[in-house]
Specification:
It is built from 3 helices and 19 strands. By secondary structure, it is mostly beta strands. It has 2 domains: about 220 residues, no CATH class; about 130 residues, Immunoglobulin-like (Sandwich), CATH 2.60.40. The strands form 2 sheets. The chain has a 17-stranded mixed β-sheet that branches. Strands 1-7 form a two-stranded antiparallel sheet.
Length: about 350
């Protein structure tokens, strides 16, 4: 989404020239019928649960344990700044330390030696992540490779030597927000979490501050939640779904039509007399010609609440978002924020009322 995830895209493509959280349509572990299965890093003897907590703050992730495949991430932002989980699946034999080394090079300058990297003298240090309940040694097992996984690597992007990009359940979230994100097709493996958002006041990206982490997804299959409302997304068309919902804890299901791999479903609560276009323009105000800078207290300049902007569907066909809805007006924005000609007010949107 241009206004919700576009700032992250701008920052990464202009400043980092990287793709870890720019989320191509590859990386989720759905079976593709590939003739040659690829080895993936996983934890053979680890146990997981159907739902885990990931808490984002300045500048860390706290992860409650291992997640069963297709399970629910209860994501919350307890900090005062915007945060994100950019998701990348570690390739066989690669570690979070390998990725951290590459991220450190971003702090010193973008790949290829052109331009300047984020202004900082700090290096991306070890991950400030707490994970409870991780057990068992890390081993290598053989699983089918997702269609397109490892393909289309951008020349000059060394992160793709370490990780395969993953979209959903990666997400961008405003301060004080929480949501439950479920992608039933999320497969077993070891995933890196990275926050690419710049520190408010013109500071370095959050990964430089140590906001890098690791998530283990194990093979036991979790059951998908039951949806209270279903919204269907398709490129070039308005989102279809209910116009009204009642307040309370609700599970929203986003369904992707064929060709929707790059669409990015997200939810905002609008301030009174505000439209989705107003929110998009507020985020665009943080962009410059060749940079993206968040002012102090950036969230206060947005005329609404960014609950969760989930990254692109990729090979997933459905994403569930569990949220606590209060009375008011909400908007879903689902278009591809990576598209250079995306309008400020996209076609792929829907506004609904909560009573």
């Amino acid at each position: 989404m241009r206004g919700l995830r576009r700032p992250t895209v701008v920052f990464m493509t202009v400043v980092l020239a990287a793709g870890l959280a720019a989320c191509g349509d590859d990386g989720d572990d759905t079976e593709s019928g590939s003739e040659e299965p690829a080895a993936v890093t996983t934890t053979a003897s680890a146990t997981g649960t159907d739902a885990i907590d990931i808490v984002m703050a300045e500048y860390s992730y706290t992860i409650s344990g291992n997640l069963n495949a297709g399970g629910t991430i209860r994501l919350s932002n307890t900090g005062k700044e915007f945060h994100m989980i950019g998701l990348g699946r570690l390739k066989p034999g690669k570690t979070l330390a390998d990725l951290t080394t590459i991220l450190q090079s971003f702090a010193e300058g973008p790949p290829g030696g052109e331009g300047e990297g984020p202004t900082t003298t700090a290096a991306a240090g070890s991950a400030t992540t707490t994970t409870a309940g991780a057990t068992g040694p890390s081993t290598t097992s053989s699983e089918p490779q997702a269609e397109g996984e490892g393909e289309g690597e951008e020349e000059g992007d060394p992160t793709l030597e370490v990780v395969d990009e993953v979209g959903a359940p990666g997400a961008f979230m405003g301060p004080g927000q929480k949501a439950e994100i479920t992608v039933p097709s999320l497969g077993a493996g070891t995933y890196a979490l990275v926050c690419f958002i710049p520190t408010e006041g013109g500071g370095p990206p959050h990964f430089v501050q140590g906001m890098v982490g690791q998530l283990t997804v194990v093979g036991a299959k979790a059951k998908a939640p039951t949806a209270d409302a279903t919204f269907k997304l398709e490129p070039g068309k308005a989102i279809t779904g209910p116009a009204t919902l009642t307040a309370g804890k609700r599970v929203l299901k986003f369904e992707a039509a064929p060709g929707s791999e790059q669409l990015e479903p997200g939810l905002v609560r609008l301030d009174a007399n505000t439209t989705l276009a107003d929110i998009n323009r507020a985020f665009e105000a943080f962009e410059t010609e060749d940079d993206f800078v968040l002012p102090l207290n950036a969230a206060s300049l947005i005329p609404g609440d960014l609950i969760a902007a989930v990254f692109d569907f990729g090979p997933a066909t459905e994403v569930y978002l569990g949220v606590n809805l209060t009375a008011g007006t909400y908007a879903i924005d689902g278009h591809d924020s990576d598209s250079e000609d995306s309008p400020v007010d996209p076609v792929e949107q829907l506004t609904f009322t909560v009573t």
